[in-house]
TrEMBL record, chain A:
Taxonomic source organism: Solihabitans fulvus
Listed name of the protein: Iron-containing redox enzyme family protein
Entries under InterPro entries matching the protein: Haem_Oase-like_multi-hlx
UniProtKB/TrEMBL annotation, chain B:
Any GO molecular function: metal ion binding
Organism this protein belongs to: Solihabitans fulvus
Signal sequence, renumbered to the chain: none
UniProt keyword list: 2Fe-2S, Iron, Iron-sulfur, Metal-binding
PROSITE patterns given in the database record: RIESKE
Record protein name field: Rieske 2Fe-2S domain-containing protein
Residues covered by the Rieske domain: 4-87
Domain of life: Bacteria
């Protein structure tokens, strides 16, 4: 690494540290962030340990570095969008000012491209699109890809339906969906400006459907709020902050990345078109799954609306937006469009695997094996210790040496309580957090 | 009129595609697959048996040479995920040929 690159890396680390240490990103006491859209905890120590001069590989996509980088990146993007508390700003005026402060916006701009490259740069290596993509090849590939996606099995929904606690599993899925559901089409809105011909108007048609034609009750994010309320889940932005999986955040970040950067426009249209073209049957199936899990009590307007309108959006996105762009702007644009299709397909598959592994994991208390405990792994917890979740880098055990600790690994439901002498195994790649109400000592040891 | 034929290769085990009398070969650059038509524009020589020197592919028959960058940009439409390669190659609308993938001697690399 050259001197200038090292300086650059150091200056990025400095900007990340200052950004993460500011008021909006400070620690939280409990497992849920309550009614404050400006509070998004970032662990400064774990961020400081990241080497920003490299990028994650596909194999490292489910990792703690990925979780931290994607949390950071989401805050960078979302501090560029307007959030107001549902019950008004009273008492949160300072948090509002801090979240949108000029200094933080400046720092966000400084770290953005590095964080994007770190978190999502692996797509460049994992997906390669070459050759001359004329319109006929573009359409052939798109139609085949859509057909495969529409007719594929839906293992995530099967995992939810067959989970022993299927409501908790459904709620973990809904918590991941909240990343986009509560701010739906915000990334899309970033390309409504400018001047790019008839395709701009086609994009706007899709956008106004997403926004319910100016009727708040019909806005897709409102329909998502209704779904949350009917399952007794919070509809406050990022209430479930600690329970977003790294891959779920990354999928959401991807859409901000390719819309924030104008050169990502064609990738965005490709990715968006694939999703819009496959959403109608997916949401139809999701509605059936949620009905089977919750019965009549669940509000499925969100699923029903998507199952209907995305039949149109799929056709519009492919034939009125993507293909005209491919024909008009040539092979370079077409390569971008196809790249977007392939990138979101890969990200979606990785996110599905991550979520299914989290749903499959059923932590249970067992007797602690103290022979595996190293003194360097010992951590003291008190009721005042901030809550955090992390991704286990490898199979490990959380051992309770004294006191009592709650293990959190899902968005809703009771945690697993462990007492002195007990331990729980955490498989590598799984998200978990611990919280204690009494003075407690734990040790997190690798399982060899 | 042409139609696009979809073909799937497991690279590097499979490095050529035959469609009727047409041959396409894989030219890999830093792990990235490009699928190039092997027929030389001059007299139809086998470009896959040519040599790459200083960024140009030289046809083994009469020595005509072509910029590799340009051949790649004009290559068949390819999506690559690791060793899995999906490509679209043109065929005449009336032709009945289906693409066949194979491993062949390719000297152009």
């Amino acid at each position: 690494m050259g001197t200038s690159a090292l300086q650059s890396s150091e200056s990025i680390a400095g900007a990340v540290a200052e950004f993460a240490d500011s008021e909006p990103y400070r620690a939280n006491q409990g497992p849920f962030v309550r009614a404050n859209p400006y509070h998004r905890p970032l662990d400064t120590q774990r961020l400081a340990a990241i080497d920003w001069s490299r990028r994650l590989t596909e194999d490292q996509f489910v990792s703690d570095d990925s979780l931290m980088a994607n949390r950071l990146l989401m805050n960078v993007y979302e501090s560029d969008a307007l959030f107001l508390p549902r019950d008004g700003l009273h008492g949160k005026e300072r948090a509002f000012d801090a979240f949108y402060s000029s200094r933080n916006r400046l720092l966000a701009d400084q770290v953005r491209t590095t964080a994007e490259d770190f978190a999502l740069g692996f797509l460049e290596d994992s997906v390669k699109v070459t050759g001359s993509w004329e319109a006929d090849a573009t359409l052939a590939h798109l139609e085949r890809t859509i057909d495969e996606a529409v007719n594929a099995d839906r293992p995530v929904l099967r995992s939810v339906e067959t989970a022993p606690e299927n409501k908790r599993a459904a709620e973990m899925l809904i918590a991941q969906m909240a990343l986009d559901g509560l701010t739906e089409a915000t990334a899309m809105s970033q390309n409504l400006g400018g001047a790019f011909g008839p395709e701009q108007s086609e994009l706007f048609k899709i956008f106004i459907d997403e926004f319910g034609y100016g009727v708040y009750a019909a806005k897709h994010s409102t329909l998502f709020t209704d779904l949350c309320a009917s399952t007794d889940m919070s509809a406050d932005a990022h209430h479930y902050w600690f329970f977003y999986l790294p891959t779920s955040i990354a999928v959401n970040n991807y859409f901000y990345t390719v819309t924030h950067n104008r050169t990502g426009f064609f990738r965005y249209i490709g990715a968006m078109a694939l999703l819009e073209a496959t959403f109608a049957p997916w949401f139809g199936a999701l509605g059936k799954t949620l009905r089977a899990v919750y019965g009549d009590s669940v509000d499925l307007k969100y699923c029903d609306e998507h199952a209907h309108i995305d039949q149109h959006h799929g056709r519009m996105a492919v034939h009125d937006l993507l293909m005209p762009l491919a024909r008009k702007h040539g092979p370079m644009a077409a390569r971008g469009l196809i790249r977007g299709v392939e990138e979101i397909r890969l990200l979606g598959a990785l996110a599905d695997e991550d979520l299914m592994a989290q749903l499959k994991w059923r932590p249970t208390a067992e007797k602690s094996d103290l022979s595996t405990v190293d003194t360097k792994d010992v951590v003291d917890l008190t009721a005042a210790t901030p809550f955090e979740t992390r991704v286990a880098e490898r199979d490990c055990a959380v051992n309770v040496l004294s006191g009592r600790v709650d293990l959190h690994w899902r968005a809703t439901g009771e945690p697993l309580t462990l007492t002195e002498g007990e331990a729980v195994r955490v498989p590598g790649g799984r998200l978990y957090g611990v919280r204690s109400e009494v003075d407690t000592t734990i040790a997190v040891s690798d399982i060899r | 009129m042409t139609r696009m034929l979809r073909v799937e290769l497991s690279w590097p085990e499979q490095n050529t595609v035959h469609v009727g009398d047409d041959l396409y070969f894989v030219l890999a650059r830093e792990g990235t697959v490009h699928l190039i038509a092997s027929t030389c524009a001059h007299r139809g020589g086998p470009l896959h048996l040519g040599e790459v020197q200083e960024g140009r592919l030289r046809c083994p028959w009469h020595g005509n040479s072509f910029k590799v960058d340009r051949l790649c940009v004009r290559g068949a439409s390819v999506v690559q995920r690791g060793s899995q390669v999906i490509a679209y190659v043109p065929a005449k609308e009336s032709a009945q040929d289906e693409p066949v993938v194979a491993h062949a001697l390719v000297l152009a690399r």
